[in-house]
Specification:
The complex is a heterodimer of chains A (116) and B (116). Chain A has 116 residues and is mainly β. Chain A contains no helices and 11 strands. Chain A is globular and about 35 Å long. In chain B, the strands form 3 sheets. In chain B, strands 2, 5, 6, 10, 11 and 12 form a 6-stranded mixed beta sheet that branches. In chain B, a hairpin with a 4-residue loop joins strand 8 and strand 9. Classes of the chains: A mainly beta (116), B mainly beta (116).
Chain lengths: 116, 116
């Protein structure tokens, strides 16, 4: 059974540009969550999608957005990139992550975004 | 709001000696708690989880954790460290949102170093 796949693995972008990251969840999983990981702030929740609907959003500016397609694949977009957006972006999938507190999430390897 | 505190940012042990990674939690209800491990340039892998069943939880690779409500702790242990255990470990609590759904709250991580 294939795991969570994130593409691309590495990205270098210039300040002011925009970027789109992709996440393919485990087959059968309908929930996809996104996290930003930085040395200073640790792992922070961005947003979560279930059946193409955003169910929850973290405390990030509107430059961060996402969507989920009918096949559960998800994309995350960051517009007007800032240097502080440099981070590892992790995607997690689960069967129905947020309906049961004990549900476990499966993480991809992440996309390392560097903004120069 | 729920939170987790990982008491040590770095832990060093010699190969073959016990491992103890400490985690305290704060929760207004019976929490679900998880330990994840992240190897360099990899995503997060679930080690074990507690969801109000047995207080001693056994995970993969010989790790286990004990839920102690009186101490609000969920420390991760392993009897004998292996070189391959060198990684960063995250304690996670599942937080209930006003919508009735949940999200993960991550600790700041503990980097485990295993000395030969």
């Amino acid at each position: 059974k294939a795991g969570v796949t994130q593409t691309p693995r590495y990205l270098i972008k210039t300040r002011g540009q925009q970027v789109t990251l992709s996440c393919s969840p485990i087959s059968g999983h309908r929930s996809v969550s996104w996290y930003q990981q930085t040395p200073g702030q640790g792992l922070q929740f961005l947003f979560e999608y279930f059946s193409e609907t955003q169910r929850n959003k973290g405390n990030f500016p509107g430059r961060f957005s996402g969507r989920q397609f009918s096949n559960s694949r998800s994309e995350m977009n960051v517009s007007t990139l800032e240097l502080g957006d440099s981070a590892l972006y992790l995607c997690a999938s689960s069967l129905d992550f947020l309906r049961a507190r004990g549900t476990e999430a499966f993480f991809g390897q992440g996309t390392r975004l560097t903004v120069v | 709001a729920q939170s987790v505190t990982q008491l040590d940012s770095h832990v060093s042990v010699s190969e073959g000696t016990p491992v103890l990674l400490r985690c305290n939690y704060s929760s207004s209800y019976s929490p679900s708690l998880f330990w994840y491990v992240q190897h360099p340039n990899k995503g997060l892998q679930l080690l074990l989880k507690y969801t109000s069943a047995a207080t001693l939880v056994k995970g993969i690779n010989g790790f286990e954790a004990e839920f102690k409500k009186s101490e609000t702790s969920f420390h991760l242990t392993k009897p004998s460290a292996h070189m391959s255990d060198a990684a960063e470990y995250f304690c996670v609590v599942s937080e209930r949102l006003t919508s009735g759904t949940y999200k993960y709250i991550f600790g700041t991580g503990t980097r485990l170093k295993v000395l030969a």
